[in-house]
């Protein structure tokens, strides 16, 4: 059996449709892939510690790629930071001088990024950033707006894991729901967009399923199972 690596988003993908709770059926299907000998790594805009702990308790790989790719957690005292939070904080300050309603989202502490509520037009903020020399990027996961250091996206952190585990892109299967997953779709040989993804996200996926969030993960893995070794 050729070992595959599933790079799996959390919110909007392995959650219950529209809710924040983990879809147990989807988690069970991913755990089955792990039991078959494949890697299943969570890659999220949540903190790397949340992704790591979900991997531990969920029976997946005990690695968490979080902060939209800016931080990887391998253990309680083993984190790799790839972004620069200070420049993200500076960018927040500048955006706030020009746009109203820019508020930080009450999330677990971040080591490399700033996480904002989706209460303003991200394109207005991106225009402000482009007019400055700030080396940051903004991305909307449909659950939060992230300010990350330039060059940081989910593939940045995931590539660190690929190096460490000798994973090749042709063995990666990415599963996600939003624009922040598209870089992973482009890196992976095979990618899956769940039914609640927007059309522009679906346009980048190898497979689009109709079911939403966790139900979509089950639908996709059921469809993939017979031909997984040929992917
Ligand atoms: O942005 C978030 O916090 C949610 O992130 P995810 O959809 O990448 O898991
Ligand atoms: Mg998501």
Automatic annotation (TrEMBL):
It comes from Candidatus Nitrosotenuis cloacae. This is Phosphoglycolate phosphatase. Substrate binds at residue 154. It catalyses: 2-phosphoglycolate + H2O = glycolate + phosphate. GO terms for molecular function: magnesium ion binding; phosphoglycolate phosphatase activity. It is an enzyme of class 3 (hydrolase). Catalyzes the dephosphorylation of 2-phosphoglycolate. It comes from the Archaea. The lineage of its organism: Archaea, Nitrososphaerota, Candidatus Nitrosotenuis.
């Amino acid at each position: 059996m050729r070992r595959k690596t599933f790079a799996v988003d959390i919110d909007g993908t392995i959650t219950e449709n529209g809710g924040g709770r983990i879809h147990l059926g989807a988690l069970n299907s991913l755990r089955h892939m792990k039991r078959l000998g494949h890697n299943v790594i969570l890659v999220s805009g949540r903190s790397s510690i949340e992704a790591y702990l979900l991997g531990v308790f969920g029976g997946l790989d005990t690695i968490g790629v979080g902060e939209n790719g800016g931080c990887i957690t391998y253990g309680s005292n083993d984190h790799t930071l790839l972004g620069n939070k200070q420049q993200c904080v500076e960018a927040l300050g500048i955006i706030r001088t020009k746009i109203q309603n820019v508020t930080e989202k009450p999330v677990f502490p971040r080591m490399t990024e700033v996480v904002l509520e989706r209460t303003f037009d991200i394109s207005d903020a991106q225009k402000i950033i482009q007019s400055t020399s700030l080396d940051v990027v903004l991305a909307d996961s449909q659950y939060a707006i992230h300010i990350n250091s330039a060059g940081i996206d989910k593939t940045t952190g995931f590539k660190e894991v690929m190096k460490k585990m000798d994973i090749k892109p042709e063995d990666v299967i990415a599963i996600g729901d939003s624009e922040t997953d598209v870089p992973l779709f482009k890196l992976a040989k095979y990618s899956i967009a769940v039914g609640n993804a927007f059309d522009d996200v679906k346009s980048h996926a190898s497979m689009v399923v109709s079911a939403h969030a966790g139900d979509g993960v089950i639908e996709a893995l059921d469809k993939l199972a017979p031909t997984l070794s040929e992917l």
